[in-house]
Design goal:
Largest sheet: 6 strands, mixed
Shape: globular
Number of helices: 10
Radius of gyration: 20 Å
Number of strands: 12
Order of helices and strands: HEHEEEHEEHEEHHEEEEHHHH
Helix content: 40-55%
Strand content: 15-25%
Structural class: alpha+beta
Length: about 300
């Protein structure tokens, strides 16, 4: 992908309005007479503060906020939601805008989304979720994306995620996923650990396969990033999108509790996985365990080293 291609992607995907204050954002979106009548602090998430804002127009919006310098959390999230929405396969929240605000005491950045009312799951919730996720994974992203990666870096939690376009999936997973995380976590490892890690990275082709076709991935697909929308169907939030092997999305759904068997049965019926997926699953989840090690500390060291030893 050349610089001109990257510029075109930025024009196409970064079309979300961006405002220099929350007041300007609300006025631009809802008119000059808009006012906030109620602010509710919402729970959930370790990185951003979340609020439900009720307006005198009758609208309710969801606001995520962070330090002003962290506005990239929200501009990249908006671009990721746009990418998923562009496939017309599975629901995402409606993006209203991003912005920054100097505030009274300290500046902050924000993302505004249309508030999602949970209507309760329909009886075939897991079947439909699996089918729609499979449809997203099948979506043809060309000519927008001709390589593995994405047109910009983004974030996995609070960690910057490299998305340098790469022609081969295994090279991308080595250089943009595992290697940066191992480098960040280097202080946790012994000399023996480092020897095993080098051997693993040098021999990824023994364990991984190139996908039958590249897929747009959610990138952080665990049950905390899926909610029930107003139609009773799954709605994807907090993505860390890139083009890659869809097995990584499925693997992560199994890492922290997993989804019901009905989900996996329906997904395989809609889009069968390549033979040997179970042998690759832990290696894909190594990326997320390394990220947790770097974010949350040595609780995750034993699972990381266990997976390294599994493949070396």
């Amino acid at each position: 992908m050349n610089d001109k291609d990257n510029a075109n992607k930025k024009i196409k995907w970064n079309s979300v309005p961006h405002y220099t204050s929350l007041a300007a954002a609300l006025t631009g979106l809802f008119g000059n007479s808009v006012a906030i009548t109620q602010t509710d602090r919402l729970s959930g998430g370790d990185i951003n503060k979340a609020y439900g804002l009720t307006l005198n127009t009758g609208d309710k919006i969801f606001m995520k906020a962070n330090a002003k310098d962290n506005v990239a959390f929200f501009t990249t999230e908006a671009a990721n939601l746009q990418a998923i929405a562009s496939t017309n396969t599975i629901a995402t929240p409606e993006i209203l805008c991003t912005g920054t605000d100097n505030g009274e005491d300290v500046g902050y950045s924000f993302l505004l989304l249309r508030y999602v009312n949970n209507a309760g799951r329909r009886s075939d919730y897991w079947d439909v979720f699996a089918q729609e996720l499979a449809a997203m994974h099948k979506a043809d992203m060309k000519p927008d994306f001709n390589n593995f990666g994405f047109y910009q870096d983004n974030f996995i939690g609070a960690t910057e995620q490299k998305n340098t376009p790469t022609s081969k999936w295994i090279d991308f997973f080595r250089n943009c996923r595992l290697a940066p995380q191992f480098s960040k976590a280097d202080s946790y490892f012994t000399t023996e650990d480092r020897t095993k890690i080098t051997k693993l990275l040098d021999n990824l082709e023994r364990f991984l396969v190139e996908p039958e076709s590249p897929s747009l991935l959610h990138g952080d697909l665990w049950n905390g990033n899926v909610m029930c929308g107003s139609e009773g169907k799954a709605l994807l939030i907090d993505p860390a999108c890139y083009i890659g092997h869809r097995e990584t999305d499925i693997a992560l759904t199994e890492l922290f509790g997993g989804f019901p068997p009905a989900f996996y049965d329906a997904y395989r019926n809609a889009f069968p996985l390549q033979p040997g997926y179970e042998d690759r699953r832990d290696l894909y989840n190594l990326y997320h365990l390394l990220n947790h090690l770097n974010l949350f500390g040595p609780t995750y060291l034993c699972p990381v080293l266990s997976i390294v030893s599994e493949y070396v």
